[in-house]
ABC transporter domain-containing protein (Camellia sinensis var. sinensis), 530 residues
Amino acid sequence: MKFESGYIVETVFDGSKLGIEPYSVEGIVFFLITLGLELVPLHKITLVTLKGCWESMKKIFQRTSSSYTEPLLESSSTYVAIDPDEDVDVQAERNRVLSDSTDNAIIYLRNLWKVYHGTKVAVRSLTFSVQEGECFGFLGTNGAGKTTTLSMLSGEERPSDGTAFIFGKDISSNPKAARRHIGYCPQFDALLEFLTVREHLELYARIKGVPDYKLEDVVMEKIVEFDLLKHANKPSFSLSGGNKRKLSVAIAMIGDPPIVILDEPSTGMDPIAKRFMWEVISRLSTRRGKTAVILTTHSMNEAQALCTRIGIMVGGQLRCIGSPQHLKTRFGNHLELEVKPTEVSSMDLENLCRLIQERLFDIPSHPRSLLSDLEVCIGGTDSITSENASVAEISLTEDMIVIIGQWLGNEERIKILLSSTDLSAGVFGEQLSEQLVRDGGIPLPIFSEWWLAKEKFSTIEAFIISSFPGATCQGCNGLSIKYQLPYGNDLSLADVFGHLERNRDSLGIAEYSISQSTLESIFNHFAANS
Ligand SMILES: Nc1ncnc2c1ncn2[C@@H]1O[C@H](COP(=O)(O)OP(=O)(O)OP(=O)(O)O)[C@@H](O)[C@H]1O
């Protein structure tokens, strides 16, 4: 390289003597500097960051020079024995996988661990297998370790201990061979913003080795399959969140890999797009019957609709495993009962409004504050009598509502309405208390309708609690109320149906449904006990 400043200075480096073109050396040096600046902005370069870079480079060199099969434990004391209280199904799956008696399985995870920074255990001795044609629902609470596990399977992360096999190829010792069989849709769309939908699919089809003569057909097939024809030539930054997700799943499926890993594929999709995506996934696993799908989702409906087997992770550990029906039968120790009472009749409503109105106008017996409230509500009490005040015009303040509660013999119900923290207040109750705070009053007919509806719910509740000991209220939406009933030897489904049918008319029940525990309540059970 020559350097001139008035004089011609000697050549500092003459690479041509070594057979290296000077410009190529310059190119490499500037490329490395650019890369470094891209990764670490100038203002962040300090002695500490330079030391960090050096340490990382040393680690990379050490890793590449050592065999992949070497144990990767930073400290073997981190990897303690598995949980002695492990669930029996999880244990049976572990024994089956470790004893190599897993027929047709194309993915095996064996004692897979991931520990970040030597202390943060993200995945703990995970062992399970997935078969051909199976859609495995990999569920779990936030931070349970699902994404970390999938990242290890797809080769993005290295296991800290244990390993997984994909078509017999070890992901630790032979990551490339293992990865060849996988289509992976990550949790966050990894799209290039200025490439179009079509260009993305072409790019990934080429990366996956689709031959040139098939390229166009393969790309078009995915565009049509995912209903992306209208958006085929749009750059990815201009796509909606749902369409970006569709493109990410389409990329994972391009080239028809035998294993498809989908990390929350339907996040951000509207219900129609979601159904559409379910169809595609279901066709892939159950109908084509050859592809193994691992699916993570926070939607229990999605898991119920698509998965043939489900594993629930909590705190890096698998807490249960089995078909949705098996999990419901094993962990669903209750029935879900939803009851909808008949509507409040207009005659009952009219009668109650009139009763309250008459008592309100029985002025001499009211305390002073209530009188002034009434004046505010209906514009002065002197000229208005109970006969000429319109029911709809009367707006009840908080104090009036408290007194009406006393008249009607249920102060507790009013307390719940005013605090609106109780589940049994329901959505309607919450709306009323919001209206009270916002407008300073509730119209008499609305209050009366709420009161009568609550009467109906109370009658039903008293009946349920006395008929099914241990029943618990799960919430009320104003139209219906849900209960969990303990389910066991002394209470069968037939008993519950029989009892409700016999008392249905006298209780004023319009509709009711009884079902086994939902997947959601089972998931909540594991999440709550984490
Ligand atoms: N690079 C990292 N460094 C340190 N800790 C990490 C790293 N990545 C993940 N973790 C931690 O590992 C645990 C598992 O995270 P992971 O993302 O796998 O959970 P998840 O089950 O996929 O959660 P979510 O449902 O929220 O996506 C979390 O406690 C997380 O904070």
